[in-house]
Design a protein that fits this description.
About 35% of the residues lie in helices and about 20% in strands. It is built from 11 helices and 11 strands. The chain has a 9-stranded mixed beta sheet with strand order 6-5-4-1-2-3-9-11-10. Strands 7-8 form a two-stranded antiparallel sheet. α2 packs parallel to α4 and α7 runs antiparallel to α8.
């Protein structure tokens, strides 16, 4: 469960009883997170965003706002986990629920970041019981390679791993699991269940993936499935990567043209840009 001073900084919309559609992104972190939100809040996946295009189903609500799940949108509501600030005084999305935004992690203190999944943040935020099986708990730490911080050769990454798992999110049992396992155990989990496989659309607009959703569901006791509805494309974006400093990126950011962005390394930013 979240530490109270962090909860005080979290936008309160996550507690709303109001219905919202969910925006799925292209990996298991997003899909498992969406599954939890469907069970807890009754919110349904009616949008899909692959960072190049935006899709929606015919069931998408015309009245409800949509929430991005494991997507670092620049303006709208989202649950996310990447570093999005360039400096401590940089602007940020005040509707985003993101531990790195709460702690003002940016390029200057990049290696102190929360290097974990959106999924773990949701387990803590909503105080959801963890999977009962060890396999399921190992899986939680393997998604988005949360375990890597513990095994890092850098002290600040090790400290950040323990700090966010134990002190911020109260997931001390998962940290104990890290201490009792080897790095290879998590690598095995990732390979066995295809945790790094992408979610894509087929030619008929149906979602597909090589992620072992049946195996994951059995291990965690939660039925995780891809939506069966057809998704229709509504917008295209230009997906880009830049090495900072980069004038084109800064200009696009200042002009409000960027839809989503994330610092994947201290000096590397990936972003999606509106087509003009």
């Amino acid at each position: 469960m979240f530490r109270q001073d962090y909860l005080d900084d979290v936008p309160t919309w996550y507690q709303e009883d109001t219905y919202h559609d969910l925006i799925l992104s292209n990996d298991i972190d997003s899909l498992w997170s969406c599954t939890l939100l469907q069970q807890i809040k009754g919110w349904d996946i009616n949008y899909f965003y692959d960072f190049n295009s935006f899709f929606k189903t015919q069931q998408a609500s015309s009245d409800a706002s949509a929430i991005g799940v494991d997507i670092d949108f620049c303006k709208s509501k989202c649950f996310s986990n990447h570093v999005t600030m360039l400096t401590d005084s940089d602007t940020y999305n005040k509707q985003a629920i993101n531990l790195n935004i709460i702690d003002r992690i940016n390029r200057e203190n990049y290696f102190d970041k929360y290097c974990g999944s959106t999924l773990l943040m949701l387990y803590a935020l909503y105080d959801i019981p963890l999977p009962q099986t060890e396999e399921g708990q190992l899986m939680l730490l393997a998604i988005d390679s949360t375990y890597l911080g513990y095994y890092s050769e850098y002290v600040n990454a090790q400290q950040a791993n323990k700090y966010y798992l134990c002190d911020v999110m109260g997931l001390t049992g998962l940290y104990d699991l890290l201490q009792s396992h080897a790095r290879q155990d998590f690598e095995r989990i990732a390979i066995t269940y295809g945790l790094k496989a992408a979610i894509t659309l087929d030619s008929d607009g149906r979602l597909k993936s090589d992620i072992d959703l049946i195996g994951i569901s059995k291990a965690i006791g939660i039925d995780i499935q891809l939506p069966k509805d057809r998704f229709n494309k509504v917008k295209n974006y230009d997906s880009k990567q830049a090495t900072l400093p980069d004038d084109d990126f800064i200009t696009a950011k200042e002009d409000g043209q960027i839809i989503s962005m994330a610092l994947t390394r201290k000096n590397t930013v990936k972003y999606s840009l509106m087509r003009i």
